[in-house]
Write a structure and sequence with these properties.
- The protein has two helices and seven strands, in the order αβαββββββ.
- By secondary structure, it is an alpha/beta fold.
- A five-stranded mixed sheet has the order 1-4-5-6-7.
- The longest helix has 25 residues.
- The two termini are 32 Å apart.
């Protein structure tokens, strides 16, 4: 949807901006967490769904197809993250994770999405005592998109 595309562009811009700031501050000596405060009314939609965070961090989900030679129909070779990646093995490794904080009905919700490429990863479960939910990506498997799952230790 159009709103989802706007959300992902917003998230990618915030990740890029934060990466520049955190690189200078953390100098890969400490984990660094980008916190996004969601104060948008829910009737306008959630600007930080799990899907939007995943695509904002790792790029658009891409399906790789075969060419379909000799009269065969094309078939799926792989499903993976594609263009517009902000967190890779070489880029923004200073960012240990993205946190989304929001207040709903007087309750503060805190969700943390760990960066699988972080040079200094956050310890999983670090924020559990504060009621935070933490997520990591599933292992990479050819032909499957990675998904968020609860982090071990939470």
């Amino acid at each position: 949807s159009h709103a989802t595309g706007l959300n992902q562009r917003f998230l990618r811009r915030k990740i890029s901006d934060a990466g520049k700031q955190l690189r200078a501050l953390a100098k890969e000596q400490a984990p660094a967490l980008v916190v996004l405060f969601n104060n948008r009314p829910f009737m306008l939609g959630d600007p930080a769904t799990e899907y939007d965070i995943r695509v904002g961090m790792y790029g658009f989900e891409t399906i790789v197809l075969s060419k379909g030679t000799n009269g065969e129909l094309p078939h799926v070779l792989d499903r993976k993250f594609g263009r517009s990646r902000k967190l890779t093995e070489e880029h923004n490794t200073t960012i240990s994770g993205i946190a989304v904080m929001r207040i709903c009905d007087g309750n503060t919700e805190f969700r943390i999405y760990h960066n699988e490429h972080a040079a200094m990863p956050l310890p999983k479960g670090l924020f559990a005592k504060f009621g935070a939910q933490e997520f990591v990506l599933t292992e990479r498997e050819q032909g499957r998109f990675q998904q968020w799952v609860p982090a071990d230790g939470c």
